[in-house]
Amino acid sequence: MEKLKNILNKYETEYVEDYKSNWVKAKLKNKEDLLNLIKDLKEAGVKTCSTVSPTDFIDDNKIEVNYFLENLKDKKNVWLKVDLPRELENCEIDSITPLMPSAKWHELEAYSTYGVKFKGHPNLRYFLISRDYYGKFPFRKDFDWKAHEKNLIENVNSISEEFFEEYEENEETFDKEGSRTVLNWGPTHPASGPIRLKVYVNGENIEKVDADIGYVWRALENLAERKDFIGTIVAVERICFMDNPNPMICYSQAVEEIAGKEITPFAKFMRVILGETGRIASHLISMGGFFGTMGLQTFLMWCLDVREYFLDVLEDYSGARIATACVEPGGVRYPLNDYKAWFETLNKAINEWERVKDDINDIFLKNPLMVSRAKDNGIFTKDDVEEFYLAGPIARASGFKTDVRIDEPYAGYGELEMDYVTCENGDARDRLFIIVKEVNQSIDLIKQAMKKIEEGVEAGEMNPAKDHLVRMPRRMPAGEAVTRVEWARGEMLMHLVTMDKSTSPYRLKLRAPSVNHTMVLDRLISGKTLSDIPLLYGSMHICQGDLDR
Amino acid sequence: MSVGAALFYIFVFPGLLFLLLWTFFIFYFARKTLAYVHKRVGPHFNGPGGSLQTVWDVFKLLTKESITPKSADPYLFNIIPIITPLVAALPVILIPWTPLINHGHGILDTNYGVLGLVVLIGVEPFLLFLTGFGSHNKYSFLGGMRILSQMISMEAPFFLAALSPALLFGTMNLYDIMYSNTYLTTLILLPGAVIFIITMLGILEQPPFHIPDAEQEIVYGFYTEYAGTNYVLLKFAEFTEILVVSAAAVTLFFGGFRGWGFDSFLWLFIKIVLLGILMVAIRASNPRLRLDQMLKFTWSWLTPLAILNLVWIIFAKLYILGV
Fold first, then answer.
1. In whole angstroms, what is the distance from residue A492 CA to residue A459 CA?
2. Which of A124, A330, B47, B152 is 20 to 30 Å from A11 by CA-CA measure?
3. What is the pLDDT along chain A (549 residues), one digit of tens a residue?
């Protein structure tokens, strides 16, 4: 920490201070210093950019760009701020992509939504937003959504025509040299989901992959600004339906931090149980989908069968199976009047997994055809993980020891026993195995948390019928917070900014891991054959919901 | 052969009606067994145990519009689905179905039965390639190319494996082969039968060799543009081919309609259904292979093994059967 502070103090800063246990927060005075500072930080081991998040302070006439830089090995992170003028012509800063490739798409996103120009970015273009938002920067505070809607309805024809022009360009001919076909892998493809991969193929061989994203862009970050602090959980949980409770946990922690409230121990362990249940529900789909990409649906069906039991758990608690809205700032949403009955449902789900676990291992995980296709295919090394910031299971499959639950414990994880689960090779098969290992780990964590709650109730320290929620203030003080949780697909980071006496968030940045996982697809798939696309794509466990937000 | 008998053969058994009933049955059977393995219910509401579901499905597809894409070649695109089921049904006349027809011989009793079978079965994929070619669609074309490469590499071991009973018994007449088969010769022919069944999966595009119509990779390949009647006809051809090839396997290696106690079509049917169960079991538990893995497997393992199998057959003929 001191080392990082020394580096930061070499430059002109407004302040350098500690933030939480493993962050250093600093504000740069001159934006010209940015590149040199990043260079120095990189030498000190901070090699990864988690995300770039601009905040539009329209009253102060400035845009504040937040850089979240992480050292994945030593877990010492830097939160860097730079002020920029708000006028579009001057809103310009040096791109850090040449130094930290992991920032590539995050900078594009910041450019598309806020109009922050990044000098020296290899390919600065509009990205993620749909064509009608080009040049309008919709997340700026002065963007007029109503006028935009009116304009869209009037000019829908010219906007769609431009799309068809692009569609015509899909075939490339090199005269006598032959031709290169652009296969559209998605968005209406049996295995793709709402994403389009432009696959440049020569016969069966892939030369290049270009991802076109934004098909499910819902502007959730902007939606959050229009809702109150409780209502925002509904926007946040819709990042991805598969792992539902964890984003709400992340958001709630940020609100609690700004309000300065501490939740009850009971709520902490409830968050562990709900979060791990969500993780298992997500991982079961990922596991099944991995085989689904190779034309085998049996495993998917078996996994969905087990998943139903875990969704029963969520339904028993919150009344909903998918969009549960079960965590809110201040604790968890509902009291648990009969906690023993709920634990029984949980045990039923756990037993169901234990029952099929061995069958799954023998029939599918050892399947020789799967091994022959996935082993040594699409390898990521530890350096790749740091360079492109592959998070969560993908990083751990390469043997990288990273897990927010251990590095920066939140909820009740600090009091539970857990260790990093890792695989060694980092190939597609390991990215399947790590998921199975994590399901087992999650079940272990749920059991521990259940035991803690039972002990707490017996000792009279917890009251499941009353302790679930701490009263939160209706109006928040001014402040900002960064929280992270270990989501099913990797680290989720939220940056919340509030104004004094506000009833809704001023700015909520959602950082989800699938962005980086999609960014590396070109590197992963180029040079392979067509058959490898679904397999390698499936092995990254990408969800378009959190890719586009 | 009288006119009445000929019409019966063409329209009832083993012709049109039989093939249609078989299509309904195997469609339903595959769906229901696969659902059982998937822990699903499968077809349920129409008919006892959902047995009429596939019939309704087929008639629903027949009432749908057959769309010809603007860019496709309209003649090629629409003619191939008519030719394909006809060609697929042709080998039916060579196979001895039941003792009641022609004293147990095939309808066309020829001394070149094995040859006729492998040639007629081998023609089919080239027609499917033409469907992909005529669709003028990137996915369909890739599917067509994949059919060709799979066919060329699968056909060599397929021919060699089909030759092994002919070589052992010294005849290409299917009836003679069937009646020469004993428990001992079945054992001798077992390696050939295994190779035949593996290549059969490749020729029928069944898992793990469903590479040409891989939905996750090339969106069902040559089926991509087909809808309505044309799609039904292609599916009909596919199921007919499954029947013909499995019947050929049973006749060549497992004694055709001969069984314990009495000889009947029932035995043939049971043996075909057992092969069908094997195919569904493989489908339910194995992912798809890559194209290059398939090529490597057929050329560096299957074809040499098929040749070795012929050596073994000649050895067995000389020293075990002692002819």
1. 35
2. A124
3. 777 777 777 777 778 788 888 888 888 888 788 888 888 888 888 888 888 888 888 888 888 888 888 888 888 888 888 888 888 888 888 888 888 888 888 888 888 888 888 888 888 888 888 777 887 888 888 888 888 888 888 888 877 777 676 665 566 666 666 667 778 887 877 777 788 888 888 777 888 888 888 888 888 888 888 888 888 888 888 888 888 888 899 899 888 888 888 888 888 888 899 889 989 999 998 888 888 888 888 888 998 989 999 999 889 888 888 888 888 888 888 888 888 888 888 899 999 999 988 888 888 888 888 888 888 888 888 888 888 888 888 888 888 888 888 888 888 888 888 888 888 888 888 888 999 999 999 999 898 888 888 888 888 888 877 888 888 888 888 888 889 888 888 888 889 888 888 888 888 888 888 888 888 888 888 888 888 888 888 888 888 888 888
Domain encompassing residue B84: 61-319
How many Cβ atoms from other residues are within 10 Å of residue A304's Cβ?
17
Tally of structural domains, chain B = 1
Residue from A98, A124, A32, A24 nearest A67 by CA: A24
Inside any domain, residue B252:
yes
Residue of B138, B285, B291 lying closest to A529 (CB–CB): B291
Strand bridging mode A490-498 / A507-511: antiparallel
Closest residue in A to B139 (Cα–Cα): A183
**3-class state of residue B183 by DSSP:** helix
Dihedral sign computed on CA atoms, order B194, B200, B202, B206 = negative
pLDDT 10s digits, A121-148: 888 888 888 777 887 888 888 888 888 8
Does the model's ipTM exceed the 0.85 cut? no
* Beta carbons of B216 and A529 less than 8 Å apart: no
Q: Please tell me what DSSP assigns to residue B209.
A: -
Put simply, the chain A residues between 274 and 333 with a CB less than 8 A from any chain B CB are: 291-298, 301-302, 305
CB interface of A with B, residues 455-514, below 8 Å = none
CB contact under 8 A, B219 and A190: yes
Place of tokens 């890719």: A547
In a domain, B7, yes or no: no
List helix spans (H) across B107-264. 113-135, 138-169, 174-180, 183-203, 215-218, 228-253
Q: Looking at chain A, which residue has its C-alpha nearest residue B289?
A: A369
Does A530 contact chain B (CB < 8 Å)? yes
Is the CB of B290 less than 8 angstroms away from the CB of A305? Answer: no
> Which residue in chain B is spatially nearest to A538 when comparing CA positions?
B216
In a domain, B95, yes or no: yes
Q: How far apart are CA A489 and CA A286, in angstroms?
A: 10
Instruction: Please state, in angstroms and rounded to a whole number, the distance separating the CA atoms of residues A289 and A394.
Output: 16
- Please state at what angle helix A428-458 crosses helix A532-539, rounded to 10 degrees: 30
Query: Who among B38, B217, B287 is closest to A301 (CB)?
Result: B38
Q: From CA B79, how far away is CA B66, in angstroms rounded?
A: 13
What tokens appear for A477 in the block?
């003080």
* Inter-chain CB proximity B289 and A183 less than 8 Å: no
**Collapsed DSSP state (helix, strand, coil) of residue A507:** strand
User: What domains are defined for chain A?
Assistant: 2-133 (3.30.460.80), 220-548 (1.10.645.10)
Q: How far is B323 from chain A (nearest CA, A)?
A: 42
Rounded Cα gap, residues A549 and A544, in angstroms: 8
**Nearest chain A CA: its distance from B139 CA (Å):** 8
Listed in sequence order, the residues at least 6 apart from B164 whose beta carbon sits closer than 8 Å to its beta carbon are: B189, B192, B309, B310, B313
Q: What is the pLDDT of residue B301?
A: 92
B5: in domain: no
pLDDT digits (tens, 9 = 90+) for A202-254: 777 888 888 888 888 888 888 888 888 888 888 888 888 888 888 899 899 88
